Protein 1
Amino acid sequence: MTFFDGDWRRVSTPCTAFSPNASFISFSRRTHSSDESASENSVVRSNTLTTSHRNTSIRLDVADLDPPNSPDATTETHDTPPLSDGWATFNVDRFLVERVISYNERIRFNSAIETGTFRGETTVGLAKLFPKVFTIEVNPEHFESTKPRFRFYPNITFLLGNSAQLMPGLLDKVDYPLFAYLDAHWQERCPLRDEIAALLAVKKPKLIMIHDFKVPGRNFGFDEYDRFPNSLEYIADLLHHDECRYAFNHQTAPQSANRGVLFIEHLLAEPHVPPEPKNRQA
């Protein structure tokens, strides 16, 4: 059993399997049943990334993603964040954190974009991984209440506005390869298709991670708008066969929010070359 649900695939009719290259790391995990709580500790191996562009005391360590269980863990000082800052990255799904850390060790993303900041839990985790993080929140109240926690992270740029409108201009300013985390789909209008279209219009390498996505054959949570679920069928027409390949998460971590995820590689994988036709004798 692997973290990803089968091989990487490319959109075609029908979808054709595409084997992941050997440098991808598989994680053998047990399947987690639906559980919306995130209160108990669990044991996992340490998988830490400390990058050379920042102080080693600010980093994302999977071993530190257990819920804070001491007063010191939640105490901040004038110039340092609390030790537990970022523990709820990706809705407390440490398997996703491990996946992104391993990706970054291989690709070395230069920037990250997040849509749907909310309280900034995942934003802080991203800021501990990547040199630059741009996060977009559409709700003014959430924007104002969350802004103070980012004072410890000068590599975060916090933007207020509609992600579908801000994304095209932002993509001209970021450095590539890019990590894009799409999690803004919670209000009446879902910007997901517009976000993906803007990202894929820029022909530069990136990894797109879509949260709250319908994973076939798995009992993971996902979002739905106007009776249309966040699913492959909803976005498949946007994915260029010769530029993109995709994979679902196969398992969720214990005590996570048990949400489905879709990963899309855009211009990151080796180009897909169809086999040469066999010579036929006349």
Note: The first strand starts at residue 8 and ends at 10.
Protein 2
Amino acid sequence: MTVPIELDGAQIAAIYRYPVKGLRGQELAGCELTVGRGLEGDRGYALAKPAYHQHFDASRQQSENDAVLGAWAPKRFFVCGVSEPKALTYTPLGAAWRDPEAELPLMVEGPAGRFDLRQDEQRQRFASSLGLDEPLSLLRNPEGLGFGDQVAPVVSLANVATARWLAERWGLSEHPRFGMHPDRFKNNVWIDGLAPFEELDWITGRSRLRLGTVELTVVQNVGRCGNINANPLTGETEVNYLQDLAKLALERGHMDNRRARPEATFGVFALVTSAGHLTCEAAASGP
């Protein structure tokens, strides 16, 4: 059973996808969302560490173009902001979203220059810029479902008011709209016009909502990791904001709906139940 929710006056403030897991995202003008899939191209590629190939049967992996086809795995097997905070300073270049035939961008730019992640030698120089002395391989999911932290093809939603509330609490002014840089959290869709933490009430009863012409069902909160401690502007790990977020969860009763205990959380995951087009400033409402 699902419960419709009312979002009077709310609208979509921003849409982000993250072509390469662990790196910065791209802000999109709009996108199509399809039932049974997440945001197309989100975490479409990942940079795997040698442990990935040791853990999974390398003989069963196939190559296609310049990437290895690989299965989903937990984040510890990939470059990510928790273990490689400097990765958050690299931005994917090119591939305008308005061109649906464009390939996902695999040229990235950051403090150490530009690197084509499809090229072995450049990819290893990129690894060195992160402080890694182990080879990285470029992976693509053969089913096109991406390498998000969830196996299920979900879309992550964030509340702009919650981000601003936390930014004020933590004394951050990294972003003109959100207070803190969105790449600390890496949510796909940011909704404005809500009260702080209102989105966490959607988890109870598997709430239904409409974003533009898309309908979704909220399935769980987004448990957070140390990525939020990494500054995307500097690539340095800072104050333990994760610890404070966990403290807030205990004080405010933000429950992990999977384990029935407080958890450091920001945003919610949702499944697309009715396909449609999503654009910034589209209205958010209950079906």
Note: The longest strand covers residues 214-223.
Protein 3
Amino acid sequence: MCTPSVKKHTTYMELLKAISSMVFITACLGVGIPVRTAVDKDTIIGIWLFDEGISDGVKDASSNGHDGIVVGTPKVVDGIFGKALSFGGKDKVEIPHHDRFTTPTFALMAWVNIEDIRSGYQMIVGKNAHPYRNYAMYVHTEGKRLHCSFCAGRCMGNFNSHATIADGEWHHVAFTYDGRVERMYIDGVLDNEKKIEAKPGTNTAPVIISRPPFRGIIDEVFIGNVAISEDDVRRTFEDGIERFILTSVEPTSKLTVTWAAMKSRRN
């Protein structure tokens, strides 16, 4: 009866020693321990956070090199995370075409703050050369709702949110398509979905953020080539792109806390 107890104690002490060694080594080297994020970085096409100013264009934070060209005079303002861009109806950001933007499955996300909408459909972000639209998110006058769409000669992938987004408040919006079902999310929660098996249209048009006459503020734009999960959308809504998707290491203090917690439970 004593042997299992000794073995368990020995295994536990070995684990503590291993963790302690990791804390010591990483503290000395000043590095962190990589942690897995649910969003595979290889599926990210581009991320635009607007935190570095726009004098030299809009930088792609994903390091994929898809920097944007500023057209007009959008203003840099405070966003949900860091800075954002305020568009006045004549401004936009153009990201030049690249073959990576052409994808049969996708995920789009952004934060928006829209006071009102004057007419029709105003595109938040998309890759559109109607009637060949790969993907796009809009705000629409009908109910001031989110409208998501893709087209291939005809627009069979159109659908609207139940929730209102043009109300002068910040909202996180997302649009995903996995080849079978398209889904839209408002503030991290699934709002609507539509079953459809079709291949979105392709084009060589640039990706547009805030196609005129869009008026409002946009922050943290994301485009990926797979449909991310509802949990990933929720985590992005709660933590932001930089913390949840871009950050790949935890501080060494996290290990220290974990080690201390294990000692506490042992004692």
Note: The domain at 41-246 is CATH 2.60.120.200 (Jelly Rolls).
